[in-house]
# Entry
Amino acid sequence: MRIDIVTALPKLIESPFNDSILKRAQEKNIVEIHIHDLRIFAENKQKSIDDYAFGGGAGMVMTIQPIDKCISHLKSQREYDEIIYMTPDGATLNQKLANKLSLKGNLILLCGHYKGVDQRVRDHYITMEVSIGDYVLSGGELAAAVLADSIIRLIPGVLNDETSALTDSFQDNVLAPPVYTRPADYKGLKVPEILASGNKKAIEQWRMDKALERTKERRPDLLGE
Ligand code: ADE
# Structure
């Protein structure tokens, strides 16, 4: 998979890809991340990428020219499955969407800033709009990092334990069960005995029961209740 991230603030989005699982996914050549600084594509002398909104009102709007130049350049190099604009009024990200996008080959993520991008960009270049939740961030960069992480960890070979993403919360529409590690007794706080019993079947049943219990308690909507 290849993900191209188009942003006015490249430094803001670099670090999540330079550590841990996302770094290893790149080292293993499972995913390529390319971050593009929009300013480089600006053709005006000041290298500005935003301007006042037509019709007035507070806040700047990201201009179409540098976005067009950057996206057109990328599209001339390869085909993209989706060109995604990160915006609070997009479709809310969930596990189902992350699963779907993890099967794609090439993605562009466009990060919005200020009051957002000129609507013509959304109308003519963007194929999908994604929000990471009903709150407003200062820009799309953190949202793009969240979306990329949720996708990349699902690609086979990224996680060491292949089954580990399959047992995440939200896969199968249930939350993950509680987990414990050593010591079995910490100042009287004990780990449920069954987990140390060695009885694999009973442990599996316990985990399923707990996952269901937690889902009923915290997210009954996932069970359609
Ligand atoms: N940009 C600003 N807020 C956002 C959000 N909640 N999701 C995606 N992009 C955003």
The two ends are 37 Å apart (CA to CA).
